[in-house]
Amino acid sequence: xxxxxxxxxxxxxxxxxxxxxxxxxxxxxxxxxxxxxxxxxxxxxxxxxxxxxxxxxxxxxxxxxxxxxxxxxxxxxxxxxxxxxxxxxxxxxxxxxxxxxxxxxxxxxxxxxxxxxxxxxxxxxxxxx
Length: 129
Hints:
Number of helices: 3
CATH architecture of the largest domain: Roll
Keywords: Initiation factor, Protein biosynthesis
Number of strands: 6
Family: Belongs to the IF-3 family.
InterPro entries: T_IF-3_C_sf, T_IF-3_N_sf, Translation_initiation_fac_3, Translation_initiation_fac_3_N
Distance between the termini: 64 Å
Order of helices and strands: EEHEEHEHE
Shape: elongated
GO molecular function: ribosome binding; translation initiation factor activity
Strand content: 25-35%
CATH class of the largest domain: Alpha Beta
CATH superfamily of the largest domain: Translation initiation factor 3 (IF-3), N-terminal domain
Organism: Tachuris rubrigastra
């Protein structure tokens, strides 16, 4: 069974599938081809093969430049950062720079409790006038 690719990137020359559906770097379909033909095409155009969809028959690969791969990785990382994980609670606490000692200790105890409960804690410090 082929290894699961969790990271988006070039698969190099290790392609577990015999027949591939290949898309060129402009997004146009080149149809189904044998992996040897896909590797020749990759070498001729100095591109890299990237697995897009593994759970279809035949699996879909795209020819991409290193720059395109890098940009796609950045987009995916940005999306992942933007979407909050399901089940993760985020708590936010705001401090003033002129906070009294007792208030500070109480709020830090509250933060410690939230961290023990595996909550994500966001702390904001406002400057006193």
